[in-house]
Design a protein that fits this description.
CATH class: Alpha Beta
Strand content: 25-35%
CATH topology: Aminopeptidase
CATH architecture: 3-Layer(aba) Sandwich
Structural class: alpha+beta
Radius of gyration: 16 Å
Shape: globular
Number of strands: 8
Order of helices and strands: EEHHEEEHEHEEH
Helix content: 25-40%
Number of helices: 5
Bound molecules: coenzyme A
Strand order of the largest sheet: 1-2-3-4-5-6-8-7
Amino acid sequence: MQIIETERLILRPFREGDAADLFAYLRAPTAPCFLSLKLSDLAQAEAEVRKRAVDEGSVAICLKETGQVIGDLFGGAGDEEEDGTASVGWHLNPQFGGRGYAFEAAKALFDHLFRVMGFRRLYAYVEDHNTPSQRLCEKLGMRREGVFIEFVSFTNDDAGNPIYENTMQYAILRREWMSGASAV
Ligand SMILES: CC(C)(COP(=O)(O)OP(=O)(O)OC[C@H]1O[C@@H](n2cnc3c(N)ncnc32)[C@H](O)[C@@H]1OP(=O)(O)O)[C@@H](O)C(=O)NCCC(=O)NCCS
């Protein structure tokens, strides 16, 4: 993807040198949906950075001031996307949460996906207990379109039984975005 600049952030592809910053938050992902991305050491982080560097849909969120990678976004490069639809997602280093960085980054990504890439509809899956992510969807003007009960499992309980998640789907159409659906 092209490099995108916002007020406080640079959105760019991952590149060599990002491993330590990525490891800082993927050593212990907090959202169950990202548990499978957990990294054990820096060598794994370096391999993950190499993979992301060639993934068109993978975006590093960097602080303009320091260059530090503080999180990532994805969207717009899935193989299974149809009818101008793309899934989107976000993951911040918790140290940088609560400062509006995720919103600033996602807003710029949405603009890119709708205006430059020409997507018609963007959607996000969000677990029913993930209120920060639900709030972000709503600030972006996304509509909660449904809740899938016991939709997916990312972990097992102590007895080895899957813990199923109730998963919401949020979405927004290009025409809604263009007419200023974002809440901020
Ligand atoms: C979901 C996630 C990206 C949300 O991050 P976030 O920092 O809460 O989101 P935002 O960027 O919208 O920031 C919002 C907060 O910043 C505050 N803020 C502070 N300064 C701000 C500024 N300059 N501009 C805007 N908001 C600002 C807002 O008031 C808001 O606070 P509140 O949460 O107390 O209402 C983050 O929690 C995360 O990465 N979670 C783990 C991964 C995850 O769950 N991913 C989604 C899976 S579906």
